[in-house]
C-alpha cells in the first residue's frame, strides 16, 4: 500500500510526515551551493551547519527566505532531495503527496512545486493553504459550521485565519515572523553594544531567553559572543531577557495588528465562537515565551498554544490525506 506523504515546505524547516508513521524528516530549509560551478554541495542539516561559516566559493542559501521563493531552482532541488530520501520510487504504489508552501507564491511556482513532487514519485500531488492545514494539525475540527481561529508564526511569514466548514473565512498574512525577530536581535545588539553577531547566534538568543511579554520577575540573562564593530576584535557580554523583549516588541506588535484586522472582518457568529474556543497559536513563534499572554491581553480573547507547534503543518497534511483516503473507500 502506498504511504501518503504530507510536506511542510517551510521557510525555516522542511518536515515530511508519512501516514501511519508520523514525522520522518525534519531539516532546515538550507542548501549549500558551490558558487563557481552552481553545484549543490549539501542540503538540510548539513548545509545549515555551514551558515555563516562558508569560504568565498560556497554559499549557504535559504531558498524560501522571507516567505517567498527567492530561488526557485534551488527550492525544487531541495524538495526533490528530501522526497528522494524516503525512497518513494521503491514504494509498492505511488504515494499521494500534500504540500504546504508559503501562501503568496505565484501560479507558475505552484505548478513547478507540484511537478517537482510528481517527478520525485508522487501520484496525486495537492497544494494546500498553510493556516488551514496547521489548524487541522493542531487538532481543530475545522469542518463543522463553527469559528476556529489560528495564528501560524513561522520563519518568514505569520498567517492568521478564521476557518469554518473546512474553509478560510477571513485571513491575513504578514511577512514578519521568526526571521525578522532574529534580525531585530542582531540590530538591537549592534546599536546598543556595537557588537556584531550572526544569524544563528541571534536565533539561539531568541530561543534561550527570548520573550514577548514584559515580566519583572524574569531575571534570565545570557552570555553572547560576537565581533566588536569598532575594534574588530572578538568580544563577549551578558544580555537580559528584558532587553530581548524590548528588541522584539515592534515586530510582534505587527503580528498582533494583523490578527486584530482579521477579527474586525470576522462575521459576528464566528467571532462569538472564537471567544468561546480561543485562538490557537502554532508555528515555531508559538514557542516564544509569553506570546500567549501578549495575544490574550491585546486581542481580549483566550489563547491556546498548540501541543507541538513546529509539527502541525506536516501532521495536518498527513491527517487530511488520511481523511481523503477514507472517503475514497
Ligand atoms: N523556542 C522558540 N522560541 C521562539 N522562536 C522559535 C522557537 N523555536 C523555533 N522558533 C522559531 O520558529 C521559526 C520556525 O518555525 P516553523 O518551522 O513553524 O516555520 P516554517 O514553517 O519553516 O516557516 P513558514 O511558516 O514561514 O513557511 C524560526 O524562526 C525559529 O527561530
Give a verbal description of the structure.
The protein is of the alpha/beta class and 329 residues long. The chain has a five-stranded mixed sheet, with helices on both faces. Helix content is 38%, strand content 26%. Helix 2 runs parallel beside helix 3, helix 4 packs across helix 10 and helix 5 runs antiparallel to helix 7. The chain has ten helices and 16 strands. The protein has three domains: 109 residues, 2-Layer Sandwich (Nucleotidyltransferase, domain 5), CATH 3.30.420; 92 residues, ATPase, nucleotide binding domain (Nucleotidyltransferase, domain 5), CATH 3.30.420.40; 70 residues, Actin, Chain A, domain 4. Strand 7, helix 3 and strand 8 form a beta-alpha-beta unit. The longest helix is centred in the C-terminal third of the chain and has 24 residues. Bound molecules: adenosine-5'-triphosphate. The site of adenosine-5'-triphosphate (ATP) has 25 residues, from helix 5 and helix 6. This is Cell shape-determining protein MreB.
Amino acid at each position: 500500500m502506498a504511504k501518503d506523504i504530507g510536506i511542510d515546505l517551510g521557510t525555516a524547516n522542511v518536515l515530511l510526515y508519512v501516514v501511519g508513521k508520523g514525522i520522518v524528516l525534519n531539516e532546515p530549509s538550507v542548501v549549500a551551493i558551490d558558487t563557481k560551478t552552481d553545484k549543490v554541495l549539501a542540503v538540510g542539516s548539513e548545509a545549515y551547519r555551514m551558515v555563516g561559516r562558508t569560504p568565498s566559493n560556497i554559499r549557504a542559501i535559504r531558498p524560501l527566505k522571507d516567505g517567498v521563493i527567492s530561488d526557485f531552482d534551488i527550492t525544487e532541488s531541495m524538495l526533490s532531495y528530501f522526497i528522494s530520501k524516503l525512497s518513494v520510487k521503491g514504494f509498492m504504489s505511488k504515494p499521494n503527496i500534500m504540500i504546504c508552501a508559503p501562501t503568496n507564491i505565484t501560479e507558475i511556482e505552484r505548478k513547478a512545486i507540484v511537478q517537482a513532487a510528481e517527478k520525485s514519485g508522487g501520484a496525486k500531488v495537492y497544494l494546500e493553504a498553510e493556516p488551514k492545514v496547521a489548524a487541522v494539525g493542531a487538532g481543530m475540527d475545522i469542518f463543522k459550521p463553527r469559528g476556529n481561529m489560528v495564528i501560524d508564526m513561522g520563519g518568514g511569514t505569520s498567517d492568521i485565519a478564521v476557518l469554518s466548514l473546512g474553509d478560510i473565512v477571513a485571513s491575513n498574512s504578514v511577512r514578519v515572523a521568526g526571521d525578522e525577530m532574529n534580525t531585530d536581535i542582531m540590530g538591537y545588539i549592534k546599536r546598543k553594544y556595537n557588537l556584531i553577531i550572526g544569524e544563528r547566534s541571534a536565533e539561539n538568543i531568541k530561543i534561550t531567553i527570548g520573550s514577548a511579554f514584559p515580566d519583572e520577575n524574569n531575571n534570565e540573562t545570557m552570555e553572547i559572543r560576537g565581533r566588536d564593530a569598532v575594534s574588530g576584535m572578538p568580544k563577549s557580554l551578558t544580555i537580559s531577557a528584558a532587553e530581548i523583549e524590548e528588541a522584539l516588541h515592534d515586530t510582534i506588535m505587527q503580528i498582533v495588528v494583523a490578527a486584530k484586522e482579521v477579527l474586525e472582518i470576522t462575521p459576528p457568529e464566528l467571532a462569538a465562537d472564537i471567544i468561546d474556543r480561543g485562538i490557537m497559536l502554532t508555528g515555531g513563534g508559538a514557542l516564544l515565551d509569553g506570546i500567549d499572554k501578549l495575544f490574550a491581553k491585546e486581542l481580549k480573547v483566550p489563547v491556546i498554544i498548540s501541543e507541538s507547534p513546529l509539527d502541525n503543518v506536516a501532521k495536518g497534511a498527513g491527517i487530511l490525506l488520511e481523511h481523503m483516503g477514507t472517503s475514497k473507500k
